[in-house]
Write a structure and sequence with these properties.
This protein is of the alpha+beta class. The chain has a single domain, classed as Sulfite Oxidase, Chain A, domain 2, CATH 3.90.420. The strands form 2 sheets. Strands 3, 4, 7, 8, 9, 11 and 12 form a 7-stranded mixed beta sheet that branches. It has a 5-stranded mixed beta sheet with strand order 2-1-10-5-6. A hairpin with a 5-residue loop joins β11 and β12.
Length: 329
């Protein structure tokens, strides 16, 4: 007998909790019964902290804290205001901890020190390296990036970290390496959703080596001039601002250079809706909703979606000879 299990991404984003309720604790408490049916999240919607309106919990005893803030790279500019930190650090998707909206408290259970990144596969210099030692080897900087969710919400964030191409250079890939497979942590003892069998844990993402060498691909260690909070992917995540947000894996523990194209987490679950490339395009709708406009967190005003999320000048040449690929899903 076939039993269909509803997953978080099966509810359209417009049914999520209204913003005026989301950041008003008293009103949230009085209306919780009415909105209880609307708390399931989509593939990029992420949850807020336990007390609406409170700021997100800071990173605990992060030994890298004294390094922040990093010098801003002025190459990367915004066409909008930076999103309020409260929004960016509490409206987060992290299915390892929950498929609902409020996961700040749950995410604090993840220990982020010691944290070792394994880099292996088709490279000349495989390594296992602690996050703090890795940061010492990298040119650290801050970048202002737009972030676009597949469920049509967006934000603008000051990320701190280093260019992925610097890590690629460090490990010296072999000529046959075509892709990077990025894998997040696996720890069901602290991330209860990883005990659910129908999800293909651990969370996996992938990109081509050409995308990894692109100037925009960015490894994130912090945001808003300090270490990133756990609910945003500490201690190491990736930001690929021309792609939909589900491509930006959090809490990375392994990067494997390979000649086989990785199958990502959401692609494994629903391949007819989520693909490998996932580049932003307003003219290519999701199978269940339009991508023509987006809603900036903290605002009710829709704005037009930009091709490649506004980064076409940086990334369009990567796809010039890939006309037969589904580049925008």
């Amino acid at each position: 007998m076939y039993i269909k299990i509803k997953r978080g991404w099966e509810l359209p984003e417009h049914l999520a909790t209204p913003e005026h309720v989301f950041f008003n604790r008293r009103k949230f408490l009085t209306t919780s019964a009415a909105i209880g049916a609307m708390t399931i999240l989509s593939a990029c919607e992420e949850k807020q902290g336990a007390q609406a309106g409170s700021s997100a919990a800071p990173a605990e005893q992060d030994p890298s804290a004294s390094l922040y803030p990093f010098k801003r790279n002025e190459t990367y500019k915004l066409d909008r205001d930076i999103t309020d930190e409260q929004w960016a650090t509490t409206y987060n998707n992290y299915y390892e901890f929950s498929s609902g909206k409020r996961l700040v408290e749950e995410a604090q259970a993840l220990p982020i020190r010691p944290w070792v990144l394994t880099i292996d596969g088709m490279i000349d210099k495989p390594m296992q390296i602690g996050i703090d030692d890795l940061m010492k080897k990298m040119p650290l900087e801050e970048r202002l990036y737009r972030h676009r969710c597949v469920e049509t919400w967006s934000m603008a964030v000051p990320w701190s970290g280093f260019a992925l191409k610097e890590l690629v250079k460090l490990v010296e890939p072999k000529a046959e390496a075509k892709y990077l497979r990025l894998e997040t942590f696996m720890n069901p003892e602290v991330a209860g959703e990883q005990k659910i069998p129908f999800y293909p844990w651990p969370y996996v993402e992938g990109l081509t080596i050409e995308e990894a060498k692109n100037d925009l691909a960015f490894m994130v260690t912090g945001m808003y001039g300090k270490p990133a909070p756990k609910q945003n992917g500490a201690p190491l995540r990736i930001a690929l601002p021309w792609k939909y947000g589900f491509k930006s894996g959090k809490a990375l523990v392994r990067i494997t250079f390979t000649d086989e194209r990785p199958v990502n987490f959401w692609q494994a679950l629903q391949a007819n809706e989520y693909g490998f490339w996932a580049n932003v395009n307003p003219e290519v709708p999701h199978p269940r909703w339009s991508q023509a406009t987006e809603r900036v967190l903290g605002s009710d005003e829709p704005r037009p979606t930009l091709l490649y999320n506004g980064y076409a000048e940086f990334v369009a040449p990567l796809y010039a000879n890939l006309q037969n690929e589904k580049l925008f899903m």
